[in-house]
Please model this.
Amino acid sequence: MIRLNLGCCDNILPEFINIDSRKVAENVIVMDLENGIAYPDSSVDYILAADVLEHLTDRLKIMNEIWRVLKMGAQVHIVLPTTDGRGAFQDPDHKSFWNRNTFWYFEKNNDHYRRFAKSYGVKAAFTVDFEEEQHHPDNIEKLSIILKKVDL
Model:
């Protein structure tokens, strides 16, 4: 079973393949996610992407890559600060900004997906298995969302 912990930083999980842009620990694979996820199509069983997607510039590219490497029916668990609080904007390394509505463009049964996916270059299709807003101190709002890969 292949389980990826993308952008692990100091959250090293023993049951995952831990990936980060820097060699933060001996058992971490260095990978530049801006260039994609270096795994074959439909080879990954589960992805954890906690506090990492907002550090990447191209939202379409990373969502397409996540979909590409996941097996059909596999899940990605994404946690990130949303634009509903200042946490999305205060970190100087944040390069993209997300909120719950951003995921509409990747949800197969959403009107935004049906209308814009093709023209925007969305090659991914997901359904939402779980979502939760998380309220943290200092007005940092986060979204925890689990998406399941579905057929286009």
Observations:
- The longest helix spans residues 59-69.
- The chain is about 15% helix and 35% strand.
- The helical segments are 59-69, 87-90, 111-120.
- The radius of gyration is 15 Å.
